[in-house]
UniProtKB/TrEMBL annotation:
Keywords: Aminotransferase, Pyridoxal phosphate, Transferase. The keyword Thylakoid does not apply. It comes from the Bacteria. This is cysteine desulfurase. Its EC number is 2.8.1.7. It holds the Pfam family Aminotran_5. The lineage of its organism: Bacteria, Bacillati, Actinomycetota, Actinomycetes, Pseudonocardiales. Its cofactor is pyridoxal 5'-phosphate. It catalyses: (sulfur carrier)-H + L-cysteine = (sulfur carrier)-SH + L-alanine. InterPro entries: Aminotrans_V_dom, Cys_dSase_SufS, PyrdxlP-dep_Trfase, PyrdxlP-dep_Trfase_major, PyrdxlP-dep_Trfase_small. Residues 36-405 form the Aminotransferase class V domain.
Length: 429
């Protein structure tokens, strides 16, 4: 196949080529095909620096935090709080105590729904979401509305992606008490104008929760610049360990939240009769034993990305996404959904005319390509795009132009299979 990128473009692939050896799993192969890992929107692979940080913690400092009065406990507590400070700097939070460690975006949003949401919403109130939300930033709010008698208001995305600030502002009626929106679509990679959307909500004194799960791995997020009241993301999508995540909240917003869970580490004093006196945030929102090693690993992941350089990461994303759009669009029958090259965020979704996305996914899997086929836990959004689902290819710092070209060649040989012939409209993922 003729190259789809110029030599000048190829020269810009240093990020992918330079870092691949840092990721041990990329040495795997399947049926003679090297692993082409393009499912980074689901989870990223972990560099040796993160793996080493986990092992070092467990080998040298494993202990609980904030409770024990011995050296290991002091070291573990210091490592945990130093990791919090790394995250604070990474997202430019004003204060360290504005960073709450969670198990991921889903846990952070559920925490806010059960604390902030129940405090501000009552029967007859409204809560605004966008039409492009992942289920993790939709279902907790739906359940909250069902429990409180509030109304869920959906502001639809424009054709093929993003939310228009003017339309969003129109949805912020006098009964709206809270808004939740995604920064980057996990389906199309579309980037929402978060700063403008937040400003529109704040003009109505409406607090905003932002799902940043797909943004943080691809761009330098500045929560103060966005002015988000709350910003949630998952550590495992940003090259950190599984079951790690962050809830950022403005200090004054977090201070008003009651504990989501109660238990060890959340109280100043307890009796059987007197009112419980809770500690301040973030400890009040981190009941029990936290994922200490996970926090240490997440900090190592941010240090790793800083060493690559965020400008290089952005250039790499732009190269891969724009190369993919050009290459895939040149394949007969393949259609790229949306406009991922407008502001690349590492995601390209496509459909193949007349072929079920699961058949396309199975074909790519047989070539060693790891990707996602289906509705991506965002079926309400995919419903507006018409297809049964899409094939989502999502890039990380270790992916290369050569891998994009390999997928492009593989797409030229895809054929209809059992899903197309026997289950043409069925979907479950």
């Amino acid at each position: 196949m003729t190259n789809v990128v110029s030599p000048g473009h190829r020269a810009q692939t240093a990020a992918g080529d330079r870092v691949r050896e840092d990721f041990p799993i990329l040495g795997r192969s399947f049926d003679g095909n090297p692993l082409v890992y393009l499912d980074n929107a689901a989870t990223t692979q972990k560099p040796r620096a993160v793996l080493d940080a986990l092992v070092t913690f467990y080998e040298t400092a494993n202990s609980n935090v904030g409770r024990g009065y011995h050296r290991l406990a002091f070291e573990a507590t210091d490592a945990y709080e130093e990791s919090r400070a790394v995250v604070q700097r990474a997202i430019n939070a004003e204060h360290t105590d504005e960073v709450v460690f969670t198990s991921g975006t889903t846990a952070a949003v559920n925490m806010l729904a059960d604390t902030l949401g129940r405090a501000v919403l009552a029967e007859g109130d409204q809560l605004v979401v966008t039409g492009m939300e992942h289920n993790s930033n939709l279902l907790p709010w739906r359940r909250l509305c069902e429990a409180t008698g509030a109304e869920l208001v959906v502001v639809d995305a424009e054709q093929g992606g993003g939310v228009d600030p003017a339309r969003f502002a129109e949805g912020l009626g006098p009964r709206v008490r809270l808004a939740a929106l995604t920064h980057v679509s996990n389906v199309l990679g579309t980037v929402n104008p978060v700063r403008e959307l937040v400003a529109a909500a704040h003009r109505r004194d409406v607090p905003v929760v932002v799902d940043g799960a797909q943004a943080v791995p691809h761009r330098k997020v500045d929560v103060r610049d966005l002015d988000a009241d709350f910003y949630c993301f998952s550590g495992h999508k940003v090259y950190g360990p599984m079951y790690t995540g962050v809830l950022y909240g403005k200090r004054e917003r977090l201070a008003g939240l009651p504990p989501w869970q109660v238990g060890g580490g959340t109280v100043k004093d307890v009796t059987f009769e007197d009112p419980v006196r809770y500690v301040g945030v973030p400890a009040r929102l981190e009941a029990g034993t936290p994922n200490i090693a996970g926090a240490v690993g997440l900090a190592a992941a941010f240090d790793y990305l800083d060493a690559i350089g965020w400008s290089e990461i952005r250039r790499h994303d732009e190269l891969l996404v724009r190369t993919a759009v050009e290459a895939f669009s040149a394949v007969p029958g393949v259609r790229v959904v949306g406009d991922p090259a407008a502001d690349p965020s590492g995601i390209v979704s496509l459909v193949v005319d007349g072929i079920h996305p699961y058949d396309v996914g199975d074909h790519l899997n047989r070539h060693g390509v790891a990707m996602r086929a289906g509705v991506h836990c965002a079926n309400t959004f995919v419903d507006t795009l018409d297809p049964v689902g899409t094939v989502r290819l999502s890039f990380g710092v270790y992916n290369t132009v050569e891998e994009v070209e390999f997928v492009s060649r593989a797409l030229r040989t895809v054929k209809a299979g059992v899903w197309t012939t026997e289950h043409p409209t069925e979907r479950f993922l």
